[in-house]
Amino acid sequence: MAPSPQVSTHPLLVHKLAKLRSCTTLPSEFRQLVYEISQVLFYEATRDVPLRPTRVVTPLVECEGRELAEKIGLVPVLRAGLGMANAMLDALPEASVWHIGLYRDHATLQPVTYYNKLPPKPDMSMAFVLDPMLATGGSAVEAIRLLKLAGTPQIKFIGLIAAPEGVAALQAAHPNVPIHLAAIDSHLNEIGYIIPGLGDAGDRQFGTA
Ligand code: URA
User: Ligand 1 centroid to 192 CA: how many Å?
Assistant: First the structure.
């Protein structure tokens, strides 16, 4: 059975999420909030990344330090995942970024891949799929399928807001992929939007609403 999604209860994140949802939040503030919430989620989702010993020379002596034992990859689903990737890349500049372009066919609500910049043989040992809105789950399921096909050993999903339908679809397709979120909302409406949600996360980041 898939483990329960990890929904952050950090008070600062909960506070910022309310601002993110508000229809009066302008794109510049919306991008900043996506950035700040994504960094908190990234710290939480990397809490269990193993460390290994390394030697460090300080200005005074040589001593033992520790470094990440995983090579981390960030996989934003275009275009709404880009703001999340920026935040995480600032938190961990040595991470690689692989872009996957998926759009939802409006008639079928199924994902269509239009861009795939995954290396054929990824050398990353842990990849984080980033998509702010886990709605039907179709894009996340497909992105993770592509990563598994490319041989990525460990995969996690980070989103901002999910619908219960999206969580169920992702858990059913990929029960071994942990899910990290800022919120799980009530339901999807008839055109696949999360309710109450925040509207279209891509449009709101890039001012194209
Ligand atoms: N994608 C979005 O940007 N918002 C939703 O509510 C659902 C999918």
Answer: 7
Alpha-carbon distance of 41 to 114, in angstroms, equals 27
Spatial distance between the Cα atoms of 11 and 161, rounded to a whole number of angstroms: 16
Q: Where are the domains of the chain?
A: 6-206
Rounded to 5 degrees, what angle do the CA atoms 147, 152, 154 make? 110
Question: Ligand 1: residues whose CB is within 6 Å?
Answer: 80, 133, 135, 192-194, 197, 200-202
Q: Could you identify the atom of ligand 1 that is nearest to the CA of residue 203? A: 3
Ligand 1 centroid – CA 85 distance (Å): 18
Ligand 1 center–CA 168 separation, angstroms:
16
- The residue whose C-alpha atom lies closest to atom 5 belonging to ligand 1 is 193
Q: What is the ipTM, given to two decimal places?
A: 0.96
CATH 3.40.50.2020 fits 6-206, yes or no: yes
Residue bearing the CA closest to ligand 1, atom 3: 200
* Tens digits of residue pLDDT in 11-53: 999 999 999 999 999 999 999 999 999 999 999 999 999 999 9
In sequence order, which residues have a C-beta less than 8 Å from that of residue 128 and are 6 or more positions away? 42, 45, 72, 73, 74, 75, 88, 155, 156, 157, 158
The model carries a pTM of 0.95
